Amino acid sequence: MLDAPMIDPRELRNAFGCLPTGVTVVSMLDEAGKPTGVTVGSFTSLSMSPALCLFSIGKEQASARLFTEGAPFVVNVLSTELADLAWQFAKPLEDKCAGVDLTESLVQAPRLNDAIAHFACHAHAIHDGGDHIIVVGEILGFDHKEGDALIFYRGQMQTSAPL
C-alpha cells in the first residue's frame, strides 16, 4: 500500500473553494431556550422521499453541541441582500440574533423572516465526519420565494444572479 501524501490544510481549503456553495443560517434554540444560529455553507438535499437534507458543522463550533437526534432546527437560505447576516451568525457572539427579524416555525425553532427559503427540520441522524459532524435533517415543512441566493466562492460572498 502506498503512503498517502501530506496534505496542506490551507491548500485543501483553497481547492474546496473552487466550488461555490450556498450560504445558509441554521437557526435553533440553545439550552436556555434562547434563539441562536450558525452560518453553514455545506447544506444540500439528500432525499425527496423521505424528505431529507444534510449539512456539516465543525465539532469545535459552539453550536455543534446543540445538534442531537430529534433536535429541531430551521435551515434559512440567504439572499444576496443578507450577507451581513451570514457574517453575524459566523462569529462567536453572545447574542447572534440581535437585530434579526425572527418568527417561530412549526418545529419550535426560530426562522429568519428575510430568507428566500426555509426548511423546518428535526435532526434525523448525526454522523461523525472527521473534524465535523454531519447532520441529516428530516424536513417537516418548507417555503420559498423569489430572490438571488448568496454564495460563498474562493473565500468571498458572491451573488448567484444569472449571467
Q: Would you kindly provide a written description of the structure presented here, covering whatever features stand out?
A:
It contains two helices and twelve strands, in the order H-E-E-E-E-E-E-H-E-E-E-E-E-E. It has 163 residues and is mostly beta strands. The protein has a single domain (22-148), classed as Pnp Oxidase, Chain A (Roll), CATH 2.30.110. The chain is globular, with a radius of gyration of 16 Å. It starts with 8 loop residues before the first helix and ends with a strand. The mean pLDDT is 94.
Determine the N-to-C terminus distance: 47 Å
Number of helices: 2
> What is the CATH architecture descriptor?
Roll
Strand order within the widest sheet?
Answer: 3-2-6-9-10-5-4
- What is the residue-mean pLDDT, rounded to a whole number? 94
CATH third-level topology: Pnp Oxidase, Chain A
Query: Which radius of gyration do the C-alpha atoms yield?
Result: 16 Å
Q: Number of DSSP strands?
A: 12
Considering DSSP H and I runs of 4 or more, what fraction of the residues is helical? under 10%
Give a quick set of tags describing it.
mainly beta, 3-stranded antiparallel β-sheet, 2 helices, Pnp Oxidase, Chain A, 163 residues
Outline of this structure?
This protein has 163 residues and is mainly beta. 10% of the residues lie in helices and 44% in strands. It has one domain (22-148): Pnp Oxidase, Chain A, CATH 2.30.110.
